[in-house]
Amino acid sequence: MMTYDELVRNLEDLTENAAHHQLQTLHSILQHQASVSYLQPYLSACDGPVDAATFRSRVPLSSYDDYFHLINQLANGDIDHHQPLLSADPLLCFFYSSGTSTMKPKLIPYFDSALSRAASYNAHQGSAAIFRKLVPPRPEVNKVLWFLYADEVTTTRGGFKVMAASTYPLQGNKSRSNWSQTISCISPREVVFGTNIEHQMYCHLLCALRNFDIIDGILAAYAAGLIRAFSMLESKWEKLCDDLESGFPSLEIADAAMRESVVEFLGGPQVDLSRRIREICAESNWGGILSKLWPNARYVKAVTTGSMKQYYPKLKHYAGDVMILGGDYFASECCLGINLDIQQPPESTRFVMLPTAAYFEFLPFDLNERSVAGEETVDFSGVKVGKMYEVAVTTYRGLYRYRLGDIVSVVGFHNSSPLVEFVMRAPKTADEIITEKDLTSAVDSFQHSTAAEVVEFASFSDYELSPKRVKVFIEFREGCVFLQEEKLQESAEALRSCCSSLENGMGEIYKVQRDRGEIGPLVVSFVRSGTFDGILHIAIKNGAPASQYKPPKIIRSPEIVGIINKSGSRKTSCASGFCL
């Protein structure tokens, strides 16, 4: 296990000559993968080792579509061991991507690569060392309210398992005998391996309330997952107290194994404990509720950057004095960067790019034009502070000059390795009218102007209409005045100016096209409470991992729009600053 001092020494060694380590990384990848079919058309004519300049000039930039048919071949078991498609290493399984702008997640092949394992191990050990320095272990208080979901593991036609990346480590902990010794999660393994995310979430809360005094922290992959869980706590605390008092979980929990494990965990009626929680929750003061319910908790940890930034204020409200810790820059495809100061809020979170995690390239990105400036990339030594870039990676596991779809801003250097901030997901095409960043900023302004709590939001650009139009879907907190039938007229008046503030925040390209008449008035739909939870359930049903689910911000699937419309909504059309 890496200590913090060892991490610092290792990171200093890697970043003092980051460009050299990058070239070594690329050399190792190409030397090992020289025979793969994907690279043959581009590099087979090269004599001897391929340097970085030759690699970048001959191998084109790629996206998931370039690998789609090869990944399907692998999934179907169409594998020629004498002529590997993407990697010379054996294929172990597939990971689901966490993207949710469409209803079907991508499949990322996971090859048994010793080089990748070493790089990933160093990254995760470094992350753990930073965490342990800030939150040293306590033997008596050593459990975590961890909203962990093993997710469904499916099998491809070729017999390969498909799962979330976060599920993979759990596959070796299926027996009850070693679960509590190897996993810090407070809940029994049957809860983690359950089949209904709402019931699993409820049972995670119930188990953590039962043993409230040994909870050291609260953890989820993304801030959105924590907000959903704390919202459930806020709405179902009375039922949770009833269950503690009776010693049995709600009859709604239909999974027999999960139910039996929770009954055993509760250990009979907990009348005094139930009374304590009722007294706390009955005050209806949810600010700082986490330290009231779990007084020994030292931290709340989740990714809060990118599209998760919107949840941070609400998370701080629940957390009170409990410190919020951010995550690292890790993706399903590879590790990218490590967060050396995990206490920073999302707007100040920076990642040191790891020179041995993959070979990185950076495409200059013009935020005003919503696109990259050509196909020419720069490497670690070519990036400039203050500039934005789309990241491309060449990994140990069969992706070559792969456009990750992330936009980062270079804010400095750690020795010679770039220090980056995550900005947003890249637009899929140059025709996209607004970005994730534009939308988040616009909705933030809208929320401040209404003084109402926006629970969730997303947008869809409808190119089928003439002129094309942008539709924004907004879900208010349940009970919001704008959704009350008896106050419809009053709500319409209040929203009149608010919708114009939303449209005004949509970014320069939107404004220019709107002024030219190329875009029709903005359509704003106020959807019923629970609409976005409905999208979550359908996404999970279609294979999206519950543990890695990120609510979509830029919707590109008409199917998702259809689901939202079916849920019921009130629409307004903004024209000349008026809500009609």
Automatic annotation (TrEMBL):
<feature type="domain" description="GH3 middle">
    <location>
        <begin position="351"/>
        <end position="425"/>
    </location>
</feature>
<keyword id="KW-0436">Ligase</keyword>
<dbReference type="Pfam" id="PF23571">
    <property type="entry name" value="GH3_M"/>
</dbReference>
<dbReference type="Pfam" id="PF03321">
    <property type="entry name" value="GH3"/>
</dbReference>
<feature type="domain" description="GH3 C-terminal">
    <location>
        <begin position="437"/>
        <end position="559"/>
    </location>
</feature>
<comment type="similarity">
    <text>Belongs to the IAA-amido conjugating enzyme family.</text>
</comment>
<dbReference type="InterPro" id="IPR055378">
    <property type="entry name" value="GH3_C"/>
</dbReference>
<dbReference type="InterPro" id="IPR055377">
    <property type="entry name" value="GH3_M"/>
</dbReference>
<dbReference type="InterPro" id="IPR004993">
    <property type="entry name" value="GH3"/>
</dbReference>
<dbReference type="Pfam" id="PF23572">
    <property type="entry name" value="GH3_C"/>
</dbReference>
<protein>
    <recommendedName>
        <fullName>Indole-3-acetic acid-amido synthetase GH3.6</fullName>
    </recommendedName>
</protein>
